[in-house]
Amino acid sequence: xxxxxxxxxxxxxxxxxxxxxxxxxxxxxxxxxxxxxxxxxxxxxxxxxxxxxxxxxxxxxxxxxxxxxxxxxxxxxxxxxxxxxxxxxxxxxxxxxxxxxxxxxxxxxxxxxxxxxxxxxxxxxxxxxxxxxxxxxxxxxxxxxxxxxxxxxxxxxxxxxxxxxx
Amino acid sequence: xxxxxxxxxxxxxxxxxxxxxxxxxxxxxxxxxxxxxxxxxxxxxxxxxxxxxxxxxxxxxxxxxxxxxxxxxxxxxxxxxxxxxxxxxxxxxxxxxxxxxxxxxxxxxxxxxxxxxxxxxxxxxxxxxxxxxxxxxxxxxxxxxxxxxxxxxxxxxxxxxxxxxx
Amino acid sequence: xxxxxxxxxxxxxxxxxxxxxxxxxxxxxxxxxxxxxxxxxxxxxxxxxxxxxxxxxxxxxxxxxxxxxxxxxxxxxxxxxxxxxxxxxxxxxxxxxxxxxxxxxxxxxxxxxxxxxxxxxxxxxxxxxxxxxxxxxxxxxxxxxxxxxxxxxxxxxxxxxxxxxx
Amino acid sequence: xxxxxxxxxxxxxxxxxxxxxxxxxxxxxxxxxxxxxxxxxxxxxxxxxxxxxxxxxxxxxxxxxxxxxxxxxxxxxxxxxxxxxxxxxxxxxxxxxxxxxxxxxxxxxxxxxxxxxxxxxxxxxxxxxxxxxxxxxxxxxxxxxxxxxxxxxxxxxxxxxxxxxx
Lengths: 166, 166, 166, 166
Known about the structure:
The structure is a homotetramer. With about 170 residues, the first copy, chain A, is α/β, with parallel strands linked by helices.
């Protein structure tokens, strides 16, 4: 039985899950690392992992965002963490913020892949896990150690950091 | 000017900050890694770092805990993260929970040092950062992806995991 | 005084020294990691480090190879390690093999950057260090744990591995 | 068919293979990492891996060394790499140097476990791989980027580095 406090983790891709392909020199998505990450950090919260897609968020279409919205609205859990590319994370957060009611949803990603050295992935994921458990229903982004409301956040492309609008 | 939302990070030692000394084969504390950790993860929350001590928590005395209590009570910040060894983290949390009022205090540590491979340190630190920002005043522990109230937590020494009392 | 056994390390770039730039998502060369690598591995052989260039070897010109050849011919050391991109490593080795006499020269690189997880960089560098000390004058490549003579090696682009011609 | 150039790798333990046990805070040997290491570095030399024991070399007995000697003498390969703790590596090298004839044997270890950050393990292993292929029959130690003859090496316990006797 999944209780109220189970966290659903929706995997959509993004830098957090990218790997270096030595044959092509490109960053690719051979598989998600989320299961390994949660195992490494000894996470004992109940969660279900669902890999919806593995995409660079610049290549997400409206249809992809609609799928994420549907999943958030219809899944049985009230606490949802979404791993997502940083480039259009704010756009997805806005769609969800406008439409998802009565659930706590936290979007999170990374600037450096988990698979590389000196990554921010595990810290960011930790931020998302506490936020999704501690916060009232609503849609949030956790990046750079901060918690942002979906309608008061942007990615500063020059610094690569997330910041409040006001 | 330090605003209300600055986080004070009190460093007390614990496994999170241990290193392997190749000459003796022992785990030691040559220095704290917190500054490097927060730099690596691109943390943009305002914080002040204070190294109070670097101790294995089994070697903490009552006097050490009193110092931590005084610091929490008298510092100007209302949001405090304490890095701490896991073995007596619950004991320190109880002293603080009983005495610190009107502030949000989160104790956190790691089972594997940050400096080793496959550590839980960055994830746990992320959990602490979100918790200290999102939670109401009170004293908490974040370990294993969970948030515990100071008076409802124990370390299970057989599994090495933190769990609720009830 | 530099004795006969000092190793000159010529840095030319290649994947071994690449880093991930989180702002652009590209692999770049902000600086060489060779000094950090040799420090990490506690190398006590006498060496001099010289950063000639930091290039993807696909972008090396004939002029770059001529510079490397001149440096090998004219430096005072008889043992030379060259860090180099893998894509045209064989081409540079052939130029050197044809022209450098009386010195032991070993070219080496990596398929995964040192700065990423699970890299082959340190192992390959170790192979180069032993090879340059143990081998007779000549020009060699060390990759995949093997030692190749300059005129009997190719990079198999499908497998990403170096192999003998015959 | 194993040809002349197959390398036999004898695993005996030592720091290179140690892991941190989060429950006890001790360094232990749950398993050898050699297979993972050789996979990570894309080693394409033919080799056979044999785990003889997993011991801190301070706990090796004369009988253990006799077993290693027998294995070196009787195995079909002429090129042998032995992973070994650094504290008594010189002692084992002396026994082998005195008795093993017609084979190239290289002992190697690490000051920092492979499983920890900033380890010298992969570099040292690379040194051993080139040395065992390039050197004439004899017994050697590769540590700190250097190649030592079995009868001209000691571990300096103050610096943790290997050095020539003369």
